[in-house]
Amino acid sequence: MITAQIENFMRGLGELRPLLPVHYEELGLNRDKVPLDPMFEVYGAREAVGELLYITLREDGRLVGYYIGFVAPGLHYRTCLTLTMDIFYVAPDHRGNGGGKLLFDAVRTEALRRGVQRWFVGDKCHASFHAEKLFESFGFEKVEHHWSLWLGA
Prior knowledge:
By secondary structure, the protein is of the alpha+beta class. The chain has helices spanning about 10-15, 20-25, 40-50, 100-115, 130-135, and strands spanning about 1-5, 50-60, 60-75, 80-90, 120.
């Protein structure tokens, strides 16, 4: 049985750590130049002040996906409480069977409970799969494109 639930990020970090490199290998940008090295202390600080949202997707208790986002007033719109996605991941063998929808239903429910007014999400253009259909099914509209240019050595 697949479930989605709110969890404490820092308490669940030990279980999350093994999935992050798998996620990074599949979706990370510039992997040949930029090592995966999350600033977990920043996530912990944001969680401590109530600005982190961590929802897990589990099958029979085993972690198979997650959503991490930040809840705060918009920097340009201080009166608009905004949920900005950091990352989300659903294990390949759980895609297409409703896992993403279940995960995003849980995120939406918690965002509404927290009084979020605007929610931003995104996916990777270079990925072998895209979450566009999932986002559209929730009513998201495409509003922006981001571009990347590697300037480092």
